[in-house]
Structure formats: C-alpha cells, structure tokens
Design a protein that fits this description.
Elements (H helix, E strand, L loop, with lengths): L1 H5 L10 E4 L4 E3 L13 E4 L2 H6 L3 E2 L14 H12 L7 H6 L4 H12 L3 H18 L4 H7 L5 H12 L11 E7 L6 E5 L4 E6 L4 H13 L2 E4 L3 H14 L16 H10 L8 E2 H7 L6 H9 L12 E2 L12 H13 L5
Parallel strand pairs: 2-4, 5-8, 9-10
Antiparallel strand pairs: 1-2, 1-3, 5-6, 6-7
Helix pairs in contact: 7-8, 12-13
C-alpha cells in the first residue's frame, strides 16, 4: 500500500485510504498533496474507519465523494450551461454563484482535460456546428451562440474545428457528455448514430481517446448530447440498478481487424461470467497471442458496454483495468449478485 500511495496508483483508489497522523487528515491514494514521511502514515480500509479514528477528509481529493455524483457546485454549474449554452459565464458570474474560478478551473482540467471556460466555449461552438449542419443562417449563428462579432466567431470556430463555418454544412459532430455512476463520473461520446466512447472521467484516457476519435471519424468533437447518449444514460442506470444484462445502444468501435475481433469477442462473454486472455486468443483463432489480446483489451474505448472488465488472468486474478482494479471488482460483483430472473 505504501508503494501504491507513493506512486499515486489509480488502481488502488477505493481499495484503501491514507491517514496522516501529523495533520489528522485522510486522503485517497491518488491525492496530489505532498506526501508525508512513511512513519506518519496510517492506512484504512474504508472512510468510516478513518472517521471513527478521528481523521477528517482531505479537501483536495475529497475521499467521501465516492457515490459517483459530481459535487453539488459542479452540478449547479453544468445545469446552468445546459439551460443556456449560448450564455457567457465569466469569472465574476462564477463568484456570484459562490464558486471560486480557480477551483472550477482545476476540477474541469482534471475531469474533462480542459478548463471550465474552454469547456463552455467548445460547448457553444458545438451547438453552433449542429445548427450549421441543420442549415442555420451563417450570418446570425455566431450571435445566437454568444459571439459579439462574425469575425470573432469565425476565428474561434476555425481554431476549434479546423475549417470555417461555411465549409461545415452537413458535417457530423461527435458529442461528449458526462454521466454519473456509482463508480464516479463517466465521459461518453457518440456520433449522431452510435456511441463511440465511454471512459472514467478521472483517468487520462478520455482526452486521448477524444483526439483519436476526431482522426478516426474525421469530424469535430464537442460537448453536447444526442439520442445515442440519452439511450446510453438510461441503459447504464438500469445496468447499475441490476435491471439490465445486455446493452442495446448502437456502438461504433473503429480499430484494426485484430482489435475489432477481440472487442467482438468481449461482447460475447456472458453477463456475470469471465474469460481469460488465453481463452480469447483461442476464440479469435490466434492461440498464443494473449499479450496482443491484452493490448487490444486495454485499447477498448467503450468501457462497461464492451465488457473488458470480464477478462481476467488464467489464474483467476483480476489482471489490469484502465479504470482501476477496484472498479473492475465492483462490476464483476454487481453482475454476480444480479437476480437470475433478469
């Protein structure tokens, strides 16, 4: 545990908690605060144990926020953006809402890979792109989405999407949104027709995968929502409630023929069961290629729905998982506990 704590290993988030005797504070293993001396550290299995021992939760890593819900102030801010996406929310507006702009900047940078202002700007531009794709008048679309001048809108639009508004008639857009879950916030992305990404927001993968999607599908990526994402949100809620075994939302998973073969085999692993990397290699006709199977498994961009969490080592040990081993164990336990009637 000491080694995992010093390395800020995300695989152990939720597995144990760290108390600092000199400050009386307890943290997640991944807390960015300066590490104390090993002799000043005490480990706990749960936040409850730390609280009963007299420790108080860290204000930086917030170890009590384990129910998957974003903090209330973030939900308030996102609700404002969703209600009026064309509105400009400046630092003064954040302060009026009781939100420290620096805190918002750090949170969005950690969970979305961009500052709040960048998130909001790209969100506005994404709505503008959708409007243009539907035939909106180019002369007024910038003003309708919070820009005071056509030149400023064209410049911002070109920086975001690599082409001027006039060349985006009929261009599709991949939209991204955050979904709450018992395992923490998830970042989802979808084309107009299919889900193409689902990742845990606190990992480094969403930003990297979003850049890959832009190249693979040849279209812009911007915050928003669409029909596939709404269907995914509903199906995930049913899954985590133990009421769904099979996802029906349409998927788009671009990759090499080998990667696609592995991902399609993942979709065939029954709910509540597991398979080894070696077994998957045999199923795709590549016995002995379990390391390559593991690599393809790691590159899966649609967690949970393409169930890479159902792949374990031959010995039965969990193996690796991009979202952390505690999440993998949670998902396997959830599926094993589901009633047989489903």
């Amino acid at each position: 545990m000491q080694r995992a704590y010093l390395r800020r290993d995300t695989s152990y988030d939720g597995i144990f908690f760290v108390g600092v005797r000199t400050t009386g504070i307890f943290c997640r293993p991944t807390c960015p605060a300066r590490k104390p001396r090993p002799s000043h550290v005490r480990f706990f299995n749960t936040p409850r144990e730390a609280l009963l021992a007299g420790y108080r939760p860290c204000r930086r890593c917030r170890p009590l926020e384990t129910d998957g819900r974003a903090p209330a102030w973030i939900r308030q801010l996102l609700a404002r953006v969703d209600t009026a996406p064309a509105e400009r929310v400046r630092d003064a507006d954040l302060r009026a809402m009781g939100i420290d702009p620096a805190r918002a900047r750090r949170y969005f940078k950690r969970c979305y890979g961009m500052t709040f202002q960048t998130y909001h700007r790209v969100r506005r531009l994404g709505h503008a792109l959708t409007a243009i794709g539907r035939g909106a008048d180019l002369a007024g679309v910038g003003h309708d989405h919070g820009y005071g001048s056509d030149s400023g809108f064209r410049e911002a639009f070109g920086r975001a999407f690599g082409k001027p508004p006039g060349r985006c008639r009929g261009v599709a857009c991949i939209v991204t949104r955050t979904l709450e879950s018992p395992l923490g916030p998830l970042v989802a992305a979808a084309t107009p027709d299919a889900v193409c990404m689902l990742e845990f927001a606190d990992s480094a993968r969403p930003a990297a995968h979003a850049a890959q999607l832009q190249k693979l599908f040849g279209c812009a990526v911007a915050p928003g929502s669409n029909e596939p994402l709404e269907q995914l949100r509903a199906e995930l809620a049913e899954y985590f409630a133990g009421q769904r075994r099979r996802f029906t939302v349409k998927l788009a998973y671009a990759g090499t023929p080998f990667q696609r073969a592995v991902w399609e085999q993942l979709l065939r692993i029954p709910y509540g069961e597991t398979a080894s990397y070696e077994e998957l290699a045999r199923r795709i006709g590549r016995p002995g290629a379990q390391r390559a199977v593991g690599s393809a498994n790691h590159r899966n961009r649609i967690a949970i729905v393409i169930p890479c969490h159902r792949v374990v080592n031959k010995s039965g040990e969990l193996g690796g998982y991009g979202g952390g081993l505690w999440r993998k164990q949670f998902l396997l336990d959830l599926e094993r506990r589901a009633p047989d009637r489903l």
